[in-house]
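Budget justification aside, the reviewers requested a transparent look at the raw inputs and outputs of the sequence design task funded under Objective 1. We therefore reproduce one unedited record. The lines immediately below are the structure tokens for a 216-residue chain.
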């Protein structure tokens, strides 16, 4: 796949539109500018890769809207070298954005077919530093915990308490919660037992489902 000047131009425009919509963190904008989103889509959707919209990636899942990716990433306030758990690998796009910011990325997916396809794709792209796992995000990833940051990219129906327990002190969890639309929660772990929550506007995600789904 090629990242042409045409694609680079479209990406610059997308970044400018994200800025106009309120994304301020220059490092996040630079990360979005550095990752060719059309690589993560089937040819049929590649034309739309730089529109600010969610798109199908197969298995009834979507690559999140660029604004949503930027908003969640901005809330995480990633510093270089931080250990980050992403829940919902999907296409692998968000994982690449986190990696571009210098995070040590661990990404969990519940659908075996997406897990296999995206793991192979990330390898092929040379993103071998991103670690992918098949598992149910409700359980987190205890064997790699604690994490400085945890990002959920599917809609939870309630606060995932297990994930809060896998944060370092000072760690941040970003999770969309709600049924038809979701509010974005940013939780900071203040101590072993205390957490601080901030809530942001409305978003729309695919559901955070229970259990893993093996390939048919
Ligand atoms: N971050 C992705 C967006 C994926 S959409 C990207 O950049 O493309 C949400 C993903 O979460 C889907 O792939 C879905 O299969 C996955 N998912 C849903 N429930 C999950 C769970 N309990 N554990 C892990 N992944 C889950």
């Amino acid at each position: 796949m090629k990242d042409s000047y045409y694609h680079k131009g479209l990406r610059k425009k997308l970044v400018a539109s994200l800025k106009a919509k309120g994304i301020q963190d220059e490092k996040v904008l630079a990360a979005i500018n550095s990752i060719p989103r059309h690589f993560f889509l089937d040819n049929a959707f590649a034309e739309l890769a730089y529109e600010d919209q969610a798109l199908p990636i197969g298995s009834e899942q979507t690559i999140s809207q660029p604004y949503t990716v930027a908003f969640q990433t901005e809330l995480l306030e990633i510093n270089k070298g931080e250990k980050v758990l992403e829940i919902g690998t999907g296409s692998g796009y968000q994982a690449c954005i986190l990696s571009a910011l210098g995070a040590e990325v661990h990404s969990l997916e519940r659908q075996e077919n997406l897990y296999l396809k995206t793991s192979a794709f990330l390898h092929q792209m040379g993103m071998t530093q991103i670690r992918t796992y098949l598992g149910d995000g409700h359980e987190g990833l205890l064997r790699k915990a604690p994490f400085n940051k945890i990002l959920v990219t599917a809609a939870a129906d309630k606060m995932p308490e297990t994930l809060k327990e896998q944060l370092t002190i000072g760690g941040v969890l970003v999770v969309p919660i709600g049924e038809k639309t979701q509010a974005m929660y940013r939780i900071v772990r203040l101590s072993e037992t205390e957490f601080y929550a901030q809530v942001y506007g409305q978003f729309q995600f695919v559901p955070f489902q229970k259990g893993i789904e093996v390939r048919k």
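DSSP finds seven helices and nine strands in the chain. The pocket of S-adenosyl-L-homocysteine is lined by residues 61-64, 87-88, 90-91, 93-94, 108-111, 114, 136-138, 153-154, 206, 208-209 (CB under 6 Å). Computational costs for records of this kind are itemized in the attached budget.
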